[in-house]
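user: can you give me the structure for this one chain? tokens are fine.
assistant: on it. calling the predictor now.
[tool input]
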Amino acid sequence: MYLMVTVMDRKRLRDFISLYRIHQVYVNMIMLGHGTARGELLSLLGLTGSERAVSLALVTGDKWRTVKRDLEQKIRIDIPGTGIAFLVPLSSIGGKRELRFLTDGQNWKKGAESVMQGTNRELLVIISNQGYNELVMDAARDAGAHGGTVLHARGTGMERAEKFLGISLASEKDITLIVTKTAGKNAIMKAVMEKAGMGTQAGAIVFSLPVTSTAGLRLLDQDDETPPPESKPDSE
């Protein structure tokens, strides 16, 4: 299972989403952004503007191969300025129902949790109803998370949630990104699912991606390695 990331010209967003629906990739989280290339580079690459859309979706390896073929043949994604798409391997996901919802229509088979060699950190991706990111972060912090970054997105395919989750989901979403140690990942995911998951107003879904290297987290590493103070025996 993989996270498929698509960065596209915002004017072509409907074309990409329509193609994904044809291939039964129904659930996409869509964010808007801007490219940062300079004017001369934009001209060199054939780009006419900087407005971009970014889509996140879960796909199987087999699904990616068929989607990739049509991205190249029908969308002509290789033409400069159209977009790019790439995969990131999925480590784990919190909840069987949630996985079935995110992969509806794909021929997914259960396998062992994926662990990349030499990775000791994970990126947690938490998708929740907009406005409940504080509830998500409170749950994550209680389980040992240090902090996160929140992005705003709009979800497609949310009308299918009731079939798998028994509840309806709003289209407006917050996506919270948290980098954590692999050893503490499961505790954070469990806390988010219990305190901000499908049984709450946050309606959060969480999955994790392997992180191969980090910078800027040295102080957090030191905090994790600091032993707790020794307890003193009670006075007689």
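assistant: here you go. The chain has a mean pLDDT of 84. The chain has two domains: 1-89, 95-213.
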